[in-house]
Amino acid sequence: MYYMAENKKLILALFVLFLIVSGKATGEQDAMDVIQADQIHAMIIKGVPVDFSNVIVEGKLDLSIQDRNNSGYANSSIKIRDSLFSDVVDLNKVIFRNSVSFEGTSFLGPANFLQTRFEKGADFAESKFNNVSFKDAQLFGSCEFRTAEFNGLANFIGTSFSDGTANFEGARFYGPAHFWSAYFDVDGTNFGWSQFNGPLSFWDADFIGESSFKGAKFNQTADFTLAQFNGPADLIGSRFAKELYFKDVKFSILKVNWESLKDKLVCDGPAYLSLIKNFKDQEQFEDADNCYYQYRDWKRQDRSWGWAKVFDYLALISCGYGVRWQNTLLTGIGVMVLFGIYFSLKGGILDSKEAGRLQKLKEAIFFSLTLLLSAPTDWYVNLFGNDKYKDIVTANKYSIFLERVIGWSLLILLVNTLSRVMIRY
Predict the structure, then answer these.
(1) Which of 91, 150, 176, 423 could be cross-linked to 198 through a Cys-Cys bond (beta carbons 3.0 to 4.6 Å apart)?
(2) Is residue 305 classed exposed, middle or buried when 0-12, 13-18 and 19+ CB atoms within 10 A define those classes?
């Protein structure tokens, strides 16, 4: 299926190329001039500025073998905008000493920038790539990939961005995107409103300044394992369709809503605890409670059977690990009904000749309620008489003691849980 999709893209690209060359694409764009890659190669060797717009570059552009005597330096400023490369572009290990711009340019063949060095910035805004590699490349200054499209593999493994910005705002990644061990030593790294349709990995990536993934869409797995966010990171409005791997992540300030992360987060204990603290520091107390609840649930499921797991289940049912006061109320109601049924079945509330089963059950549940709340005995005596009350106590003294203990325990849990949820300091 992958190769069929790639073939369809290639056929579509060739068709568009044919229309452009023939001047029939649209009435808004004139026919594109055709130049040879060797012409660009010769201009760069001579140090002549390269400035083309709306052209088709035919042939393989290979600067990786341009001139071994000058250590791969390229002194020309390069502007090839709104154009199209029909073949391979190989700029491996080239050192660009002046600005480079491929704004709005499409690369039909593989584009290789392995270990390439851009000393005065690089502009790939609105460019389109099929397969591109910036592996171990060094980009200094302002680096623009704004609204760029990556239709195949986007390889940024070990790429370094320094002394400027790294702007991928609105970029579209339709294939795998690898930013393993990428280094973002810039004022701002911006992936806001980007869309990742293939697997994404920022494994061991390092963000020195601020970073933004605001409004980004992650339609496949997103792996931030071992990533470090040394400045504020903004994930507000981000959406994760599949798993978000967040193991061993380090961050100082993470702006995100729990709604974006829940049920998608895959991480370890320290990362959970860091997230909980992060939410509290930003006064997102409800998010902190929800994150803590999922953390405790993850710990419970991860435990082997034993007393620790039993207590985890008790904590879950009785108070939602201390952050769900509704669980305590529901547990109290459940205890009241169960003890009421027990008292009703055992007898001593009403003789079967005096009333039907339903009436008997109602009185038993009411008696259970007075025990659970440790209410005055007058509650029951005034309605059903002192003799009946004594008969019940005589027949069920151990059960009565147990329910009173449970009632006091639930009351303490309710007070503590409400204090935690309602009193923030």
Answers:
(1) 176
(2) exposed
Half-sphere exposure of 99 (CA within 13 A, CB side): 12
- Dmax (CA) of the chain: 113
For residue 230, give the amino acid letter.
Answer: N
Return the closest-CA partner of residue 40 out of 13, 80, 99, 12: 80
8 A C-beta contact, residue 374 and residue 361: no
Residues in the chain: 425
CB atoms within 10 A of CB 306: 9
Which three-class secondary structure state does DSSP give residue 349? coil
Burial code (b: 16+ CB inside 10 Å, e: under 16) for 20-33 equals bbeeebeeeeeebe
Query: Which of left, alpha, beta for 20 (phi over 0: left; psi -120 to 50: alpha)?
Result: alpha
* SS3 of residue 103 by DSSP: coil
Other Cβ atoms closer than 10 A to 188: 15
Residue-level pLDDT at 404: 86
pLDDT digits (tens, 9 = 90+) for 179-216: 999 999 998 999 999 999 999 999 999 999 999 999 99
Q: What is the pTM of this model?
A: 0.80
Nearest to 206 by CA among 191, 187, 226: 226
CA 184-188-194 angle, to 5 degrees, is 90
Q: Are 343 and 392 in contact (CB under 8 A)?
A: yes
How do residues 76-122 score in pLDDT, each as one tens digit? 999 999 999 999 999 999 999 999 999 999 999 999 999 999 999 99
Nearest to 186 by CA among 118, 238, 245: 118
DSSP helix/strand/coil, 222:
strand
Question: How far is it, in rounded angstroms, from Cα 243 to Cα 245?
Answer: 6
For 289, half-sphere exposure in the C-beta direction (CA atoms, 13 angstrom radius) is: 19
Residue for token digits 């710990």? 299
**Are 171 and 192 contacting, i.e. CB atoms less than 8 angstroms apart?**
no
- 28/106 Cα distance (integer angstroms): 18
- Helical (H) or strand (E) element with 217: strand 217-218
Q: Residue 315 and residue 299: Cα distance in Å, rounded? A: 12
DSSP letter for 68, please: G
d(CA 294, CA 275): 11
Q: Is the alpha carbon torsion for 387, 388, 394, 398 positive or negative?
A: negative
Spatial contact of 247 and 272, defined as CB atoms under 8 Å apart: no
Please name every residue paired with 244 in a beta bridge, in sequence order, or none if there are none.
Answer: 222, 265
The answer to whether residues 294 and 266 touch, using CB atoms and an 8 Å cutoff, is no
